[in-house]
Amino acid sequence: MINVFQPSLGDEELAAVSEVFASNWLGHGPRTKAFEAEFADHLGVPPEHVLFINSATAGLFLATELLGLGPGDDVVLPSMSFVAAGNAIGATGARPVFCDVDPRTLNPTAADVERALTPATKAVLLLHYGGYPGDVAAVARLCEARGIRLIEDAACAVASAVDGRRCGTFGDLAMWSFDSMKVLVTGDGGMLYAKDADVARRARRLAYHGLEQASGFAAAKVSHRWWELDVKEFGRRVIGNDVTAAIGSVQLRRLPGFVERRREIAAAYDRLLAGAEGIVTPPPLPPGHSGSYYFYWVRLDAAIRDQVAADLLERGVYTTLRYPPLHKVPAYGGATGGALPGTDEASDTTLLLPLHQGLDEADVRTVADELRRAVARRSGRAAA
């Protein structure tokens, strides 16, 4: 089976984990701090503003807490987002308000976001679909002008940037995902960024039980009763550890090569599917934008999309849709800023093709050939 997602792990990652085992310190320790500093350097931000956590989902929940979201607050987000975003908002008692997306880029424009704003809007939660930066700079300007907080769900955008500025650093808070399906993987894990230094310090406390001093060993150097607790607000345990951080450090060093290979595969799909009747490939990145090439998506006739996906699966090519629209999920209440025609169109016509750095040239050609044949067959045309 040619999979949609697949990590690239090898001897370097094994060696890094072996070093952690040999140190006999597996928890949140020196390798975690090193990974945070390395990732902060990758972003171009101070290391104290970055926190390694156990998942991007934990980062979403932590972000809603840091912003004090609750009943009576509205949060605008694109309907084509991961379910974790809707859950994080809904769990606070705040109301998710879904905005539309451009059916080609699958990102909202600033105008889409603005149409969904309400008098009760306290935050905007913006996803960078498939690693495409989207209209993030304009959305950030809109939020700043309106006094609205911006959360960037940069789970898919670990290497994405606009005019040299990394996605995730435009807003007040951001999180990245390093789960086993992402470009940079740690098995499970994520990173949280807070622009404000005080918010970053509070995030670190809340991520470890609300404790002012996370390590009793460190406290022993400054207190004669280091085992006593200093808890000023309730927290939970969502920190990362040195085992996964060690993997992350290696993966971060390898990231440029991963992204370049994914860019090559996306370019190959563009070339192999050019002119194919009934298949629309992704739009090119705008000038000044760089992507992470996490998704490669095509648009097909809605009448045949599901049949094509089934045909490809039968032929050993796994495809999928990310993400089913959240405004159709009853649990979220269905609040929108009006009709969402772009989202509805995209959810009915979009299909993600396999894209990961483990694909070879034969795999890419097989996917493209099988897609062309399946679309031709289901459209009633003879395959080319």
Structure characterization notes:
With 384 residues, this protein is an alpha/beta fold. The chain has two domains: 11-252, Type I PLP-dependent aspartate aminotransferase-like (Major domain) (Aspartate Aminotransferase, domain 2, 3-Layer(aba) Sandwich), CATH 3.40.640; 256-378, Alpha-Beta Complex (Aspartate Aminotransferase, domain 1), CATH 3.90.1150. It has helices at residues 11-23, 30-43, 56-66, 83-90, 110-116, 136-146, 197-206, 216-219, 242-273, 305-314, 341-349, 361-378, and strands spanning 50-53, 74-78, 95-99, 121-127, 149-153, 161-162, 165-166, 173-177, 190-194, 289-290, 296-299, 350-353. The strands form three sheets. The protein has a seven-stranded mixed sheet, with helices on both faces. A three-stranded antiparallel sheet has the order 7-6-10, with no helix packed on it. β4, α6 and β5 form a beta-alpha-beta unit. α3 (56-66) runs parallel beside α4.
Task: Supply the key terms.
single chain, 384 residues, alpha/beta, Aspartate Aminotransferase, domain 2, Aspartate Aminotransferase, domain 1, 2 domains, seven-stranded mixed sheet, three-stranded antiparallel sheet, 13% strand, globular
Under the CATH scheme, which class of the largest domain? Answer: Alpha Beta
Shape: globular
The low-confidence parts are: none
Alpha-beta content class: alpha/beta
Order of helices and strands: HHEHEHEHEHEEEEEHHHEEHHEH
DSSP strand count? 12
User: Major sheet: order of its strands?
Assistant: 1-9-8-5-4-2-3
- Give the N-to-C terminal Cα separation: 24 Å
According to CATH, what is the topology of the largest domain? Aspartate Aminotransferase, domain 2
Main beta sheet strand tally, sense and closure: 7 strands, mixed
Percent of residues in helices: 25-40%
Q: Quote the beta fraction.
A: 5-15%
Gyration radius, rounded? 22 Å
Architecture (CATH level 2) name of the largest domain: 3-Layer(aba) Sandwich
Q: Output mean pLDDT.
A: 95
| Total helical segments | 12
What is the CATH homology-level superfamily of the largest domain?
Answer: Type I PLP-dependent aspartate aminotransferase-like (Major domain)
